Every structure is written in structure tokens, then in C-alpha cells.
Amino acid sequence: MRPIKEMTTYDVLVVGGGTSGMMAAISAAEHGAKVAVIEKNSSLGRKLLVTGGGRCNVTNNRDKEEIIAHIPGNGRFLYSAFYQYDNYDIMDFFRSNGVALKEEDHGRMFPITDKSRTILEALIGIMDRLEVDIYTEAPVDTLLFDEGKVTGVQLKDGRNIEASCVIISTGGKAMPRTGSTGDGYKWAKKAGHTITPLYPTESPILSDEPFIKDTTLQGLSLRDVALSVLNKKNKTVVTHQMDMIFTHFGISGPAVLRCSMFVHQTMKRDKTEEVTMSLDALPNVSKGELTQQIQKLIKNDGDKSAKNALKGLVPERYLLFAFAKAGLDENAPLKQAAPDKITQFIEFIKDFQFTANGTQPIEKAFVTGGGIHTKEVNPKTMESKFTQGLYFTGEILDYNGYTGGYNITGAFITGRIAGMHAAELALSK
Question: Which of 202, 245, 207 minimizes the C-alpha distance to 223?
């Protein structure tokens, strides 16, 4: 990092030294601007360091249509940006700067070191090479304006930093321990922007069901299940087929996190305090196929106990739970099971319905839903439609994606676009 020096006037000032902020600073500097990053924490990239379980899932190796499909919260806003800079450009950016990447399941891209710090150090190194000034422990109090243009920022210690363009990259309110405490929303409001209601996304789901409260399934992981959110008409809102885990407060894991925003949206739309979830433990086997499998077992292994005959169908704890729900005696020979009990068992395996009553709060979520209304931001440049020279990037904007490299892709791309266009505007003055 470059040492803190006497404040000067900049072409581009980036407020927030997270993922999108660092990329914005790099982009602006590469386009010839004199750039500074203002960060309230003592160091940059705190949230980046914990992404991907500390390994930093930098992007996803899919085409842009599929990426945007995995950003269900206003992902279409990013179309124009994607045509200027996309996930393949992100991969090229890191590789050309000496960071080797590897692909894992579902197209997820990681540094081969498996360390987020590799990505952070690369970004800081590039900023240093581009002579970007970095000011840490420098919390911003407010933005400065003059006749509909942004002119800089005022720090909480009273100092003013002037700039032709200001990029707000302060993040949302998820994971506040990393410094994401929603500072930028009030500044956006001051510039005339609407902040859509904030809500947690990519968050564990809560349930007050008896089997949760009595910890019957606590700690049990289920692989490759299909989890659905149902509306009040019992119609499927969304289904995600991934892994999940039962916890002491409800459910978590990849499938659950992806369903979480839809839990919120469905509760709000249906004006209800709870929502029904449906769990299919064997989504790759139809109900008819499962029935045939069990009938075959009854014929060939019917003398065995139900527990032993159906062993391996699903994890044992879930199997015993299913028996209890269907009224099957786990120790009785399978061939003695009443046909209606077998039917109930199959129904349970394919469609276990239970209620959820929200998610963990935004502070415990991975991603913030809601934010600066995207209709008030130019999608081609990330510039405010109300204030010249003011730009927004990343999670402060009202878009959100799934984990798996989608949110961070949005952060890198919006940062890249904002930095490039801010530099062009500043240098044209």
C-alpha cells in the first residue's frame, strides 16, 4: 500500500476498499485517472477474505446468460455491464496478473492456492503498481455536492477530499463484522436515490417445527436433495437441487441459502408469517420408480426388517425419521408393512413438507437483498442518474445473486465498469 500523505484532489475517489471498490480503483487508474481509495477499516478486503470459505470463489465459468440467471435479484440490470466486461475477462485479469485459477464443481473458479489472501494481495499489488493512494482508518461522514455534481467527500475528522468523480463501494448490511454496516445508503439518499427495502439473502432458514426444536435431525446432512419454496396456493415458487443440513434453528447449506430470498419474498407477497417448504430426498428418482424399487425389495428381501431392507436408500437417521412419519415399524419384516404405510413412506421421501418462519437476520446473511434502486442508476456506466460524477458498485445496488461466484462476479464487473467510466468523465473535464 502507498503511504498516507497530505490529501490532494483526485480524478476518482473510491469509498470502500472491498471487492468492487478495489476493482473500481484499478480500472480507473488503468484508464489514466489519479485515484484514491478511502476505507474505514484498518485494512482492505475484509469480506473478500472470508468469501468461499476463505478460499475466494472469484467467479463462475458459465456463459453470461447463465450467470445472470443465477443472479435472481435484478440480475438483468447487469446485462449492459456484462457486454463490456464479463466473467471470462475476470479470469483473464487474474491470470494475466500472475494468479493461477482452477475450476471446481458447478463452474466455481478458485485460486489454485485455495487462499482468499492470494486474490487480495494481487489486487493490492496492482493498485500499488498503478500508484493508487490508499487511506485506511478514514471513515467518511458525507458526500460533497455542488450544483448537481459530486465534488468529493468529508471525512469524520472534518477533512475534505476533493474529486471529480466519487464511486461508492461500501457494500450492504450483511456480515457487519467485515465493516459492511450500510454506510453508503444515507449518502445515496442525500443524492436523491431511493433505497428499496433491505432483506437477508443467502441466509440460513428458521423453523419452529417440533423435529427442529427437539433436535431429531440436528447435524444431519443430505446430499443432492431438491428443496422447494411453496406459496399459499401450494404452488412451487422455486426449487434448488443441492446439499443441505439440519441445524438447531432450522436448515442451512447450499440449497437452503439459495431458497432464502424466496422465503422472504413469498412471505411478503402472501402476507403470512410462515411459508411451506418441500423436501425431495431422491430428486433423481421418480415416485413411480421408487415405488417399483420398494416393491422389488419387498419381494426379494421382504423377510428383512424394514430398516435393513431399505438401508442405504437415504441416510439412516432420515430413514428412521421417515419410518416414524409413515407409521412403519423399523424392526418388523418389510413384507408385513401395510401398503398404505409404504405409500406414506414414499410420499414422505419425495415430498416432506414443513414450515419455515423466515431466515436469520441480515447481519448473519452472506448477501444483502435490496439497496439503491437500479432504475436510478445508468446500467452502462453505474453512474447516478441524479448526480453527475457519482457512481455505485457492488452490493449497495439492488441486485443479488447466489453464492457460487455470482455475487462476486457482479462486484468485479460493476467495479470495473464504474471505474472505467468515472475515469473517462473525470479526464474529459
Answer: 245
